[in-house]
Amino acid sequence: QVQLVESGGGLVQTGGSLRLSCAASGRTFSSYATGWFRQAPGKEREFVAGIARGGAITYYADSVKGRFTISRDNAKNTMYLQMNMLKPDDTAVYYCAARLGTVYATSVNDYPYWGQGTQVTVSS
C-alpha cells in the first residue's frame, strides 16, 4: 500500500496563493491515480482536483477551475496543488488521496488511501 503525507497549508489573505504537496511512500507512486479533497467545518469532504497516474489528464471541481492546478512528479513520488486567487470559501482541511489504477475518481469512496490533511485558512 501507499502512505501519503500532505504539507504546505497555512494562513493566507484573500487573493493569495499556496502550494500544497503530497509526498508518497511505499508502493510505486506511479501505479496510483491521485486526487485532492477538502473538508470545511460542518461540511462533507468534497472533491477538488484529480490527476491520472501518468499526469497527462486532470480534472477540477467547478469551484476551483481556473484558480487551482494539480500536478505530479512521479520521479519524486509527489503530487502538488497550486492554489491561486484564494477565497475565504477555500478554507478547509485539504487531503490527498490515492487509488490503484490509471484514472482518477471524484468520489471519496473510490479512494482507499488518504493523508492526514493540512489546514488552509483564507482570511477576508
What are the key terms here?
mainly beta; 124 residues
Your description of this structure?
The strands form 2 sheets. Strands 2, 4, 5, 6, 9, 10 and 11 form a 7-stranded mixed beta sheet that branches. The chain has a 4-stranded antiparallel beta sheet with strand order 1-3-8-7, with no helix packed on it. It is globular and about 40 Å long. The chain contains no helices and 11 strands. 34% of the residues are buried. With 124 residues, it is mainly beta.
Alpha-carbon distance between the termini?
A: 40 Å
Stretches where pLDDT is under 50 for at least 5 consecutive residues are none
Helix vs. strand class: mainly beta
Strand content: over 45%
The helix content, as a percent range, equals under 10%
The whole-angstrom Rg is 13 Å
How many runs of DSSP E, i.e. beta strands?
A: 11
Characterize the quaternary organization of these chains. Answer: single chain
What form results from the Cα inertia axes? globular
Overall pLDDT score:
96
Secondary-structure map:
Blueprint: E1 2-7, E2 10-13, E3 18-26, E4 32-39, E5 46-51, E6 58-60, E7 68-73, E8 78-83, E9 92-100, E10 113-114, E11 118-123
Parallel strand pairs: 2-11
Antiparallel strand pairs: 1-3, 3-8, 4-5, 4-9, 5-6, 7-8, 9-10, 9-11
